[in-house]
Amino acid sequence: MHCLLSFVVVVCCVSSCFATELQLTSKRERQLANTICQGTYPHHLQGICIDGDAIYWSFTTTLVKTDFAGKLLKQIPVANHHGDLCFHDGKLYVAVNLGKFNDPQGNANSWVYVYDAATLKELARHATQEVFHGAGGIGFRAGRFFVVGGLPDGVEENYVYEYDGDFKFLKKHVIKSGHTHLGIQTATFAHDRWWFGCYGAPKILIVTDADFRMKGRYEFDCSLGIEALPKGRLLSASGACEKEKGCNGSVRVAAPDEKAGLKYLAQDDQK
Fold this sequence. Notes:
The protein is mainly β.
């Protein structure tokens, strides 16, 4: 009987802790509704990612860390061109191209730079020269990193370059997406799908399965950042630049939509 009571107490305590975590997650998710990054920056937003406490913003030549309300915590200058980024195991991984983008001859200089998420201190640089038209975006799935990037005019498919955890090149994947202007800018794996943001007029969202088979092509703008959230949702970034003021960034919560690919949620829907 004593053992049974002890078991019940343990189960209740675990359930209570689990419920508290879920409540905290929901609260933090609601904080992300229409979050505006504090400050303006010399170049435009390239991508976002999050951990449990912070949002990380790549503004081409400035790496920025804010809380979920958008309050500035840290920022550092970085090499031009820092693109999209992802968070894994306490580190930020940023797709970087130091050469030409979208060059048919492949005169890019592609890298992944690694930063400590807590301090934004640079930890490592990994060459990813296989990314032929310039590394511009990165995602993580199942122990592997996946780098995307530029695309010359006239090419009717996109490419994803797969690396292991030590950035040894493994495979080049082909997405039968049709042409997208300047390739793929942002990437994340969420809810059993890959989500890729692309430039264009209109801007394009590409959705594939885990093996990069096309699931849909939509007119939705997540070209400045796309990130996974719990409960089937995602975080999509926006931004604008003014000549005399600089560039800003913001994020909104979105949910998958059969017709539109993604749709933004009102704050009341984020419960």
